[in-house]
Amino acid sequence: MKVIVNISLKEGVLDPEGQAIKSSLSNLGFENLNDVRTGKQIILNFVNLEENEAILEAKKMCEDLLVNSVIEKYKINILRN
Amino acid sequence: MRSGVTIFPGSNCDRDIIVALKNITGKTPIKMWHKDTEFPNLDLIVIPGGFSFGDYLRCGALAARSPVIKNIKNHISRGGAVLGICNGFQILIEAGILPGSLIRNKKLLFTCRDTMLEIQDTIISPFLSGLKKEHHLNIPVAHNEGNFFASETLLNELKNDGRIAFRYIKEVNNDTDYNPNGSSNDIAGILSKNGRVLGMMPHPERAINNLHGGTDGLKFLTKSFEQIIG
């Protein structure tokens, strides 16, 4: 059972990496951008857990370690092949 | 003064602060390996700079969940003093001991240079009460994530409660680059509610000898240690 956690910065938190990427994209001629925001993805490979149990476990992991709730938000999804 | 210095995989300023503690207090601090949990009672614990756990996940995030942190929290609840420098400041925040967040430097660059610090009006703190406010401190920074970020509510609370310890200030009037990381309100260091925990991005242990280019770090540490013993 694989669970994907997508972590991104909350609105209003400066994302200098996103700004740098936007500026570089603009140099390449991609002008139709308001904003670029970056984030990270963590894939959790669980053993012996049902979907709902895995999601609950992932949520607890986010709260205890994976996410800094002062600046970040997250989304949890089941990875289906 | 009985002191200890925590060591995580990737700490790299531990030896510098151990030298500073030994030179100033005459006593060698104990080394506190991150997996250990049994330590004698101490007056001061220093969490040194470095790249604990390779800065994986977020700076300080993994170190803040190490076994030694429980001992640091017990030490704080006994009224013990804690100084977190650079990565140590990041660890204190990740452990929930100090509030806010330290995010990427505004210009996305690792910044290593001198900064001028203004001592703020604070609550009573052993780290600051021996210092004269009008004397600024020239202490270097070296970091990639030192941009202090917090909600407006928290920033006001820190200011009103006298918990902002240091701010970066201009050395000359036209200096527009005095804040090395873009931190909110030019904050360089903050205190806990009881004033006995200080987190700061600048490295005082890198300014304790004229060969370092200055000794303001020595002045700050010497005054702090005097107050902690007293």
Can you describe this structure?
The complex is a heterodimer of chains A (81) and B (230). Chain A has 81 residues and is of the alpha+beta class. In chain A, 35% of the residues lie in helices and 28% in strands. Chain A starts with a strand and ends with a strand. Chain A has two helices and three strands, in the order βαβαβ. The mean pLDDT of chain A is 94. Chain A has a three-stranded antiparallel sheet, covered by helices on one side. Chain A has one domain (2-79): Phosphoribosylformylglycinamidine synthase subunit PurS (Mth169, Chain: A, 2-Layer Sandwich), CATH 3.30.1280. Chain B is of the alpha/beta class and 230 residues long. Chain B has one domain: 3-Layer(aba) Sandwich (Rossmann fold). Chain B has five helices and eleven strands, in the order βαββαβαββββαβββα. In chain B, strands 2-1-3-4-11-10-9-6-7 form a nine-stranded mixed sheet, with helices on both faces. Chain B has a two-stranded antiparallel ribbon with strand order 5-8. In chain B, α1 (14-25) packs across α5. Chain B is globular, with a radius of gyration of 16 Å. The termini of chain B are close together. The model of chain B has no long low-confidence stretch (mean pLDDT 95). The interface between A and B is medium-sized, with 11 and 18 residues.
